[in-house]
Give the backbone structure.
Amino acid sequence: MNIPAELKYATTDEWVKVEGDVATIGITDYAQDSLSDVVFFEAIVSVGDTIKAKQQIATVESVKAAADINSPVSGEVIAINEALADSPELVNKDPYGTAWMIKVKMSNPSELDNLMDAAGYESYCSGREH
Amino acid sequence: MFVPNADPDREAMLKTIGVERIEDLFTDVPEGYRFPKLNLPEALSEMEAYAHLSELAQANSSVRDLTCFLGAGAYHHYIPAVVDAIIQRGEFLTAYTPYQPEVSQGTLQAIFEYQSLMALLTGMEVCNASHYDGATAAAEAVIMAYHHFRGKRTKVLVSHALHPQYRATIRTYMQGYTQLTITGDECTDCDPLAGPEVLLRAIDTNTALVIVQYPDFLGRIYDYTELANTAHQAGALFAIAVNPIALGLLKPPGEFGADIVIGEGQPLGIPLSFGGPYLGIFATRKEFVRKIAGRLVGETVDQDGKRAYVLTLTAREQHIRREKATSNICSNQGLMALASTVYLSLLGKQGLRQVAELCYQKAHYAADLISQIPGYTVCSNAPFFHEFVVCCPKPVSEINQALLEYGILGGFDLSTDYPGLKNAMLIAVTEMNTREEIETLRDVLEDISHE
């Protein structure tokens, strides 16, 4: 399982990449693996929307389940990865790269303190393995 | 109530969910309604019940006893004997939902064929497994459009010439959507015989859906291209409610740029039977496939490469994500969908066209004869399919009473739903009406006007 060291992680399996006051959000390798083949991605917010932490931002469907993706941070949506609508399989192939989902201009960067680092997320995931 | 659980089991279950008694689970139901006293007579034996019901049934006059010119959304068409023979087979006659494809290939394939036929008939890319009836399907179209815009567009425009009961059903379904406005059909000061052009002005960037009927409730046929374009330019979705028989003759709504096509499938081999069970058709474009309510059957291959049918895209179905589903109605009218499939496959393209042509020709013959009776006019001059508005010299209720004495079920009285159309009757003619019946109708209408 791939858990990049430079990212922050939420208990709902989203990752956050921080660059200045911009947070890029996607879902983790663990999440894509649990979902199996992803066949659908739909953002349910638009560029310009103001969102709150824990608010749903997208829906992902796989061949066996549907999952809601939530934003770990509050702020303004400044970009949505339109490519995922046509190529949802990128979520399985490249969850930390081309399958980024949205970018948010953070209004409250202190929310990042509620997230886990890579080591914390790793032990969180292994605690869930049966 | 028969529930095969012993008392200790029940107690354990109640304890687990943290309530003391079963009654505690019903506290949301006002007490007065929980166990109402039912005003029922004493029980009867099967033999007595049969005799009693037979006696009651004899008081009914059905289309078998009367000559029928009544339509208004439910139509008297011929149903080939094979339709009943097939749908009564035990393998099909089940309420079981085909979630297990390995034991449901027959049912799944039947629904798949239904979907394929409806997609073809409507000119759309995808059709769901069906809804209860046309009115329900119309409400689901509104719900889908609302969710498509995530509640950001709060206006739904309905044509005043959409079936009044469909409009009432839409409003019932949307009661909880407090921010949504359903408008366009308030016909207080407008001309009830106005065409769809009255909707053009009302379309704006807050409009989620524009919904019209084809042929409309008054039987009229309009080209909706301009309306569809205007809706699309404003970013709205466009829905058309259809009579599937008419599509045997008319341009399919897919060619108008419809985003959603809904309709009442009853005319396709389903008896009138006092208003149900009917069949709600719901077809749309592929891009909305994940937003449609209900369920969808798809075709795939099994691990040996053999063709197989499965419920597909179920990740968004209500049994998986109830609170996120577009609709919480996943029941479909499986048996009625099958009836329409048998009917359509039996008739084929040519057969359906023939039925539609007979309806069209006979209705126009009837309209022609009626318009020649002094005091009667066919009061809409738009092209029509098999139903038309007749302005009469007397209240329709009186005329219908008189027609009944001659064994004729007259047209629909429009005055209740369209106060501007006093003394106006909606007459439907199908392939079931003979020349003699049509001529008798003319003669009787003429006699009545002299009384």
Observations:
- DSSP finds four helices and nine strands in chain A.
- The first helix of chain A runs from residue 29 to 35.
